[in-house]
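Appendix B. One record, verbatim.
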Amino acid sequence: MGDGVIKSYIWSFVNRFLHFVLIISLGVVLASLYFWEKALWLHSLMGLVFGGAVGLRIVWGFVGSRYSVFRDFEYRGVLEYLKSIADFIVKKTPKRHYIGHNPASSWAILLMLLLGIIVACSGLLEYGISQNSGIFAFLFYQYSKVSFIQEIHKISAYLLFGIVIIHIIGALIDTLTNGDGILSMITGKKKTPQKITLVLSDFQKAFSVLVILGVIGILSLGNGILKNHFQPLNYAKLNADFEKECGSCHLLYPPYLLPKKSWEIMMGDLENHFGDDASIDEESRQEILKFLSQNAAENFDTKVSQNIIKSQKDSSNIAITQNEYWITKHKNINQEVFKRESIQSRANCFACHKGIEYGVLQKDLIKIPK
């Protein structure tokens, strides 16, 4: 079909609105990766918006306007279309023009929508698994069974970003070759051989309103959907000896931060407790050791605990800060930070991890004091 000289309204408001929501939300998701410790909640909220927009676009693909529905996509002739691009670049011959989606973009959109659903769902699952937050928080204590989700999230995200880049390149080529491409998604208009009038049914108009309300609703309900489900631990009730004896000298470190073997070594040599004599009566020592062993990393099936177990290279290590997992998670923090008056020590987890003395360890609660 020819390039056409008439500009017709092809992409409805819903198409363009969802397109920009997808671009903005995915862009923020990507940007938040550079400020991970501070922007996990933003990453998750925008991922939620992205997933919702993908879902709405899929529904619009079945009930939407002409050229927007999947049945109107052009799936055949991908190689011919790519050849026409090559011929345009090399031979300067006219590139074939499509009123709706060209074959390459048709398949790219289907792949992006499929991967978008996988990325959004796996992201919500990962958020519950690693942060005890969101609708999948019930999986937090079952990490060893569902840890594969984080790989699915990572791989599908890489694939999605790759296809998005290719799609952007294709849109730029379309813009340079015939003036449509990116511009058409802003104005909604494309070149057509003859005038085409886009008319929405009452149902489509109503759905258009629901799409806008849906995106606003996700943003408004984001806090509720992504809320954390951490329940602060009351160590005084869980083990009075632990709270009394250990808490009398320092804030309480959650037992899941060390393996059972480390607690056994530590409690077996309280006379040399990091340079101090922390000796207590034998009955209390045994009671505390039992509590620590029962709640050690091996018996706490969470992402943090299981990674502590896997990374413990020295079985005789009793220092949380000497565990390889701790070292890896803190490697990007300038060493001068630990010397600040407000922190003073690498072992002062409580300065930055708000609530850790109650067993709460969540990225969103990390606040490094000045």
